[in-house]
Amino acid sequence: MSVAVTLNETASSASVASTTSSSGSESSADLQNNFLTLLVAQLRNQDPTNPLDNAELTTQLAQISTLSGIENLNTTLGSISGQLTTSQNLQATTLVGHGVMIDGNTILVGSDSSTTPFGVELDAAASDVVVTIQDASGNTVKTVNLGSQTAGAHAYSWDGTDDSGAAVAEGSYTFTVSSSSTTATALKYAEVYGVSNNDGITQLNLGLSGNVTLDKIKQII
């Protein structure tokens, strides 16, 4: 915003006013310098019978001061954001080599009947959580009654045996979680192999489970 040019203002000061009003991308410092240059020119050439309006000058100075404050705030926030991103990346690297639980319903069984952990996330406490494990053909091989569980994420292990106590075959199994009193979500196990940063977003490399952001991690094992 520029101060109006008075009738007896010289051509040179009028040119300054034109330049100030025509530019729409100056920083607060540029606007302040142009404003003060124009103000001095107007004070030198003002009509004694029609002096400048002090209220208008004060308003314009306040607006320039506000713009400068906003620019400084944006710079500060940008710096803080960069520091937080760096800190988050450093913290995420400590997860490399660890296991995490994410949304999924897969359990892997090895040749020695060892299994990957499985998990359950409950929206609220429940008294009747049941896990049903199925083979690749959809046949139920194991039903696990977890009973009462508190709200939140929980990790469990399966001994790799079916309902009869016999060891199941090596391979990939799926499972479902049910509860009559709350929403239950199945969680699968994954190992963290690395950390990457894409467009300022920290992601964990989980191998065959792909890349996920930190908010997708339900539990660290």
Automatic annotation (TrEMBL):
Region Disordered: list its residue ranges.
1-28
Q: What is this protein called?
A: Basal-body rod modification protein FlgD
Assigned keywords, A-Z: Bacterial flagellum biogenesis, Cell projection, Cilium, Flagellum
Q: Which family does it belong to?
A: Belongs to the FlgD family.
* Matches recorded under InterPro entries: FlgD, FlgD/Vpr_Ig-like, FLgD_Tudor
Gene3D superfamilies according to UniProt: 2.30.30.910, 2.60.40.4070
Q: What does this protein do?
A: Required for flagellar hook formation. May act as a scaffolding protein.
Q: Which GO terms describe its biological process?
A: bacterial-type flagellum organization
What is one Pfam family matched by this protein?
A: FlgD_ig
Composition bias, Low complexity = 10-28
Domain spans labelled FlgD Tudor-like: 87-218
FlgD/Vpr Ig-like domain mapped to chain residues:
112-181
